[in-house]
Amino acid sequence: MPKLDEKDKEILDILMSNARTPFTEIAQRLNVSEGTVRKRIKRLEDEGVIREYTIDIDPAKLGYRSVTLLGLDTEPEHYLDAIKALDVLKEVRWVAKSTGDHMIMAEIWTEDDIELGRLIEEKICRIHGVKRICPAIILKKMR
Q: What domains can be seen in the chain, in order of their start residue?
């Protein structure tokens, strides 16, 4: 497990807030050189702490008015196949193995609730081994 000091954590906080923050700005905010920031970020990438740089998209601006977190339970022998089946659906943004109330969690973007209902009935319910589906429609993402 990589050992992170306070400067590493501060760099990560800045990048999590805005992954496009220039190295010069990070260096200025932390009162270190740009080279120091560059080396630390490279090390964090090499150690797998930073896996990728992404963007946060507003689904509504793309026409997706229904964003849903889907909890899904399967028969144990069909667990991995269900994950694979969900992962190939274009409406599914991510799939995760989970513990707690559901075995599998997924985020789904659809144009509206009618399309969501159709997706659940025509595709998700038909995934072999599915026992229970619990959609939770997101009203507003706070952060």
A: 6-46 (1.10.10.10), 59-138 (3.30.70.920)
